[in-house]
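Deviations from the work plan: none for this task. Representative record:
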Amino acid sequence: MRSWCISLIAASCLFAPSVASWAHGDIHERIAACTRKIQEQPGNPGLHLQRADLYRQHGERDRALADCARAEKLDPELVAVDFVRGQTLVDAGELQPAKQAFDRLLAAQPRHSQARIARARLFAKLKLYAAAEQDWTAALAHVEDPEPDHFLERAQMQAAQEKWDAAVAGLDEGVRKLGPIVSLESAAIDLELRQGRFDSALARVDRLAAQSVRKESWLARRGDVLERAGKPEAARAAYQSALDALQSSPSDRRRTKSLHDLETGIVAAIERLKKVPR
Amino acid sequence: MNSSRPCPSKARRGAHGFRLLAVAGIVWFGNAVPAGGVSVTRGPYLQQGTSTNIVVRWRTSEAATSRVRCGASLATLDLVTDDLTPKTEHEIQVTGLSPDTAYYYSIGSVSEVLAGGDLQHRFTTAPVPGTARPVRVWVIGDFGTGDGNQLAVRDAYASFTGTRGTDLWLMLGDNAYELGSDAEYQTAVFDVYGDLLRTAVAWPTLGNHDTAFSTAFNDAYPYFAIFTLPKNGEAGGLASGSEHYYSFDYANVHFICLDSMTANRATNGAMANWLRTDLDATTNRWIVAYWHHPPYSKGSHDSDFETELVEMRENFLPILENGGVDVVLAGHSHSYERSFLLDGHYGTSATLAAGMILNTNSGREDQTGPYLKTAGGPVNHQGAVYAVVGSSGKVPAGGALNHPAMFVSLNQLGSLVLDFNTNRLDAKFIRENGFVHDYFSLVKEEVRLSDARVSEAGAFETTLTSVAAGKSNVIEASTDFSDWVSLATNVSSSNSFPFIDPDAVNYPARFYRVRRLP
């Protein structure tokens, strides 16, 4: 019995919606189908766990927890029950009991990265930023294909503790693994500026500019960094380069709101810097 | 002849989406690998096509070396790319191709050809990005049933397109029912679309069935082992760092694929931040965005209540409309629903206001004319057409089909064809029986009412500019955006047409529009 249980449980362990889903339509069918299977195999803990997760997705806390309990009773060693239970309790806003469920699971399976991530997010909700950071770091050590958001979320936890250097280092870890992508580099630029590390910020801006066909927004960002660094002449030159790049592109290529806003911002910056004594 | 150049992104993965742990233990066999008995069990299929590169993938029954031979004619397949590491999942990136050029190819090992080298194995590279030339896109969603419905939709499109061929195709998710397993992909994708997969590049997005309903944000799903997607900007878009969401260019169209299933849908998440920058970076005329969960639907799913649908609408449509998106495609609801030309509708269906429908007509050239947008590149908030194409295999059923943003809502099987041609997009919904059940056009041209003013006598005066010579235009007026009356018709012989409405003085407010006559 153990082997077929495991495959179902493995599938169930993937279920980890971050928010309650009002997925009417096929979720009803899936609950009904799972119920039919349970009727055929009432002693199958994996099916109860599967249905627990479906109930959770449907926002039915009590039914989800009841199925978790049944699955656990059928197989007391089935630690994955605590993952679905924890998620259900998180969705219901019962964070401390949810934490206990994840604690139990992670004590049994410390490398369960999805549980780590779930508990990291739970800690963030509890404003326990150090604990969240710790779980993120542990999760990132085991996640095979990390995503940009994983690094961003950890950096947010570190920034919340004012651990700026660690936050930047964590984003750089993401850049090393995923490449110089804008979502990580932009966050790092913000952190560098906060720390007054203008040269590092400029280096990141230049890296992003190098990979973009259109340079104007990065040239403008360069101007912004230089202005914050107290280098008005260099800033004005950068802004002017941005404006030149923007205006040299065909007029029909710069009519989106963001580019209009960019042009307005650049012109305002140039005018502002004209008033700064040389 | 190219030396060994395996595509790096997927070669390390096993057949079922889980990475092999013992890569380091592979022994270099080189040409000594016995090829006898090796057969192709999947593919070949084309991925990540650009104007100079393409990825060719296939699966073999036994581990073997990989070789792709390419050439502009069947007699000269002399561009050879090898990977000498024996494997069953073959992935070869062919580089150094010429833009917009037809190639023939074969696949196999270094010692034998296993498939191709014939008229059925060919592809045409993408044009140089930005080039205006006709582009045909086939769009299918919620198709992966492997049953007769899916085949009927496929065959109806094949009959429709005939020898025209397909430049690229979009898969809107739920590509393989029920759980997106590798075996289900074989049945619902590779066994069904073999001909198209080996001649045109497919660009997929992730549906709820492709992740077995999981929303865990990881690459463990078979989808990611099967497809090679441009996370590093390999196909013209900005690098996203994730195969979950990416962009690419084809001719003068910029395509954006989002992940509505597992990615962070927050406005400050990595996907949203990347999207903003990607939109700013594009130099193309057209922007098409697609993902699985529809922002507007009253089909088998309801966009007023379901989390993914609500969040994609509230958080991503403002970004896309700021960036000048033209068409947004989704599936999930097993229906075909197509909107008016819309802008700024981010709430539930009950909040749709008249001003959010920029054109209340059909968008059909032979009826009320195409939807018009300003010529050239993307312009923010000039309207986009939203389509749910979720009935390319799944039996359409359920839902009130009464979303007020939709011009047409159908519980019918079918697929969507997008034909781009310079400044014009023509779209057709092809039913499984071949019947064209809906169609619309979007045209980007410089028709503008400028220098508008009210004279001392209260007359409204303006100039219709940049009117295409020889085209008829009618200027219409309304007080409520609903009832329009014709005021003047002009066949332009120049690019400027002055217009005066002396009756304007009789109305507290009067709105004007220009409509191109067929």
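Chain A has a mean pLDDT of 87.
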